[in-house]
Amino acid sequence: MLDLILRGCTLPDGRRDIDIGIESGRIVALQPALQAQSAHTLDAGGQLVSPPFVDAHFHMDSTLSYGLPRVNESGTLLEGIALWGELKPQLTQDAIVERALAYCDWAVAKGLLAIRSHVDVCDPRLLAVEALLHVRERVKPYLELQLVAFPQDGVLRSPGAKEHLKRALDMGVDVVGGIPHFERTAGEGAESVKWLCELAAERGLRVDMHCDESDDPQSRHIETLAFHAQRLGLQGRVAGSHLTSMHSMDNYYVSKLLPLIREAGVAAIANPLINITLQGRHDSYPRRRGMTRVPELLAAGVEVAFGHDCVMDPWYGLGSADMLEVAHMGLHVAQMTGQAAMRRCFEAVTSAPARILGLQGYGLEAGARADLVLLQARDPVEAIRLRATRLMVVKAGQVVARTPAATAVLNLPGRRPNEEISFQR
Ligand code: FE2
User: Fold this and answer.
1) Long-range contacts made by residues 280-287, C-beta under 8 angstroms, separation at least 24?
2) CA of 268 to the centre of ligand 1 (A)
3) Cβ-contact 126, 168 below 8 angstroms
4) Active site annotation includes 213
5) What domains sit in the chain, N to C, each tagged with a CATH number?
6) Each residue of 381-411: pLDDT tens digit?
7) With bands split at pLDDT 50, 70 and 90, how would you rate the model's confidence at 77?
8) pLDDT interval class at 357 (50, 70, 90)
9) How many angstroms is it from 48 CA to the middle of ligand 1?
10) pTM of this structure
């Protein structure tokens, strides 16, 4: 006797009329016309069932703080960093916890069940670290939160940051972060990458650095990151986040860089909503888009994910934990409008970040965790087009969120009254 059968599912790979059998929080069967008894049965009605959304890059210590203590008027990255510096002394642990938990509620409702969040370690009190470690435990039953020790003000530039970062790792933060382009010089940036990668290798941890979040084509820390990832045998465990300077680099140099990133097994995390908002701010016209070279990285065999980065914080006043909105923006900015390319954008917010985070038991197959999202869409492309409603979110076999289908009711001349339509085709 199974706990639950979800019948009539369409899967992201195009398989239709699939029944998913769930027992003890795991998928035990995934096939057409499943013959089995179950305590509960739900009908997917031919709609898309996906593994949960995964956000590879977020800042949960600053989320939902928009307007505190003031709004970022220029909209630039640097004013955002300065504003965060103003807010930091006023932060309380309770306020960070309250906002993070509120965000996790939004995430669950949107089928976003795993988030890698950077947490600022340039505060000797490590207030945000303590708060988010607490949140990680609180949300564990329904959301996997992975934390990155992120020296926002530069691990070499900010006094004491090396020690604070090590202390955060000792406290249980999962991943080593960095921000080489914010160090005082390119040389110090490179030195920070070396020190941080060696620390990660020593401790057996993953690495995820804010890397080259700049329009300066000379910002080439990704080259150093790839070099040390390979030298230290960290292949498959290192990610470069943002990499926006690649947008502006010389094509010849990029033709050397892409295979280097691939050889080093370094993943790339673009943050489309934020990159398109913050980059190109020093340009007049033509104004650069600023997102890294996503199609070219994919073609070179590099793992690429899209992250949300910010929601209602000093850098970005919008967002709602909707990874389909992120994929939608990524698709547009990268001009990935072909059918296969659009599907890759869906993977960039599901399976690709799951691999980058090293999530265990993720996916739609027998033996995987029964974590699923039922979308009001027939396929991944329609899901992106509609930023589809999450009709149902299942965590370990339990329904944890529901949202009513998005429909509109029309009253038009010559038509029947109260005609209900959806935007699906
Ligand atoms: Fe970030």
Assistant:
1) 280/215, 281/74, 281/75, 281/76, 281/77, 281/215, 282/215, 283/215
2) 13
3) yes
4) yes
5) 2-51+363-409 (2.30.40.10), 53-357 (3.20.20.140)
6) 999 999 999 999 999 999 999 999 999 999 9
7) confident
8) very high
9) 30
10) 0.97
375: nearest Cα among 391, 355, 352: 391
Query: From the candidates 23, 144, 183, 213, which is the catalytic residue?
Result: 213
Ligand 1 centroid to Cα of residue 78, in Å, is 13
Between the alpha carbon of residue 84 and those of residues 72, 104, 220, 227, 282, the distances in Å are 10, 21, 26, 32, 21
Q: Are 208 and 239 in contact (CB under 8 A)?
A: yes
CA of 254 to the centre of ligand 1 (A): 23
Q: Among 85-89, 404-408, 412-416, which stretch is predicted with the lowest mean pLDDT? A: 85-89
Q: Is the pLDDT of residue 143 over 90?
A: yes
What spacing in Å lies between the alpha carbon of 109 and ligand 1's midpoint?
A: 23
What are 315-333's pLDDT values in tens digits? 999 999 999 999 999 999 9
Q: How far is the CA of 354 from the centre of ligand 1 (A)?
A: 18
Give me ligand 1 centre to Cα 59, in Å: 6
Q: Which of 110, 156, 136, 82 is nearest to 319 (CA)?
A: 110
**Per-residue model confidence (pLDDT) at position 89:** 87
Could you give the CA distance from residue 336 to residue 175 in angstroms, rounded to a whole number?
31
